[in-house]
Amino acid sequence: MSKIKIFDTTLRDGEQSPGCSMNLREKLEVAKCLELLKVDVIEAGFAISSSGDFESISEIARAVKDCSVASLARATVKDIDCAWEAVKHAADPRIHLFIATSPLHMQYKLKMTPEQVLEQTAIMTAHAKKYVSNIEFSAEDATRSDVDFLCKVVDVAIQNGATVVNIPDTVGYTTPAEMQALIEILIARVPNADKVEFSVHCHNDLGMA
């Protein structure tokens, strides 16, 4: 049976919850507890978002030895470079880059065409590979993306070095059965899907957790 791995984002996504902001000491304490729990990956923050996040990721990267430490990064050179500087002292550093793939996000947030998103995915995944072999690629708003296009984006990410493909339910409306079906489609249709790990990022807006 394949191993189910735990990617813990308490220190990044979890900290966005009201009343959950943490200082450096508290973040280090949480990271050490997560290490004791033997999670596989700690997403320590979003390096470029603030100097505080950068510092905490760097300190966690130095302190944690038994699991991977990741920083989130948009699919831009500046974000990826900053993420690398933050995680480079980790025993197993990971860069977690993302780009939106839904029609709504591509048009109104990124102001990019699907072709431009494919090109950016290729270039930025390859750029991250210059620093690390442990690369996670996330297709933001994947569950509202065109499935054919999502398959293309995932294929491009894998071709250029992604070792983990994450499918986020960004707006939190997909049911467990729908998520299962989407992952099965991607594994069946994307070349070399068997060479990478698939991951999901879900919310509990529908109260089904």
Question: If strands are numbered along the chain, what order do they take across the biggest sheet?
Answer: 1-2-3-4-5-6-7
Mean pLDDT: 97
CATH superfamily (homologous) name of the largest domain: Aldolase class I
Q: How many helices?
A: 7
State the CATH topology of the largest domain: TIM Barrel
CATH class of the largest domain: Alpha Beta
Shape: globular
Q: State the secondary-structure class.
A: alpha/beta
Extended strand count = 7
**How many domains?**
2
Helix content: 40-55%
Based on the coordinates given, report the CATH architecture of the largest domain: Alpha-Beta Barrel
* Share of β-strand residues: 15-25%
Pick out its properties:
209 residues, alpha/beta, TIM Barrel, 2 domains, seven-stranded parallel β-sheet, 18% strand
Molecular structure report:
The protein is of the alpha/beta class and 209 residues long. It has two domains: 1-91, no CATH class; 94-209, TIM Barrel. Helices cover 42% and strands 18% of the residues. It is built from seven helices and seven strands, in the order E-H-E-H-E-H-E-H-H-E-H-E-H-E. It has helices spanning 24-36, 51-63, 77-87, 103-110, 114-129, 147-159, 176-189; strands at residues 7-8, 41-45, 68-74, 93-100, 135-140, 164-168, 197-201. A seven-stranded parallel beta sheet has the order 1-2-3-4-5-6-7. Helix 2 (51-63) packs across helix 3 (77-87) and helix 6 packs across helix 7 (176-189). The longest helix is centred in the middle third of the chain and has 16 residues, at 114-129. The protein is globular and about 45 Å long.
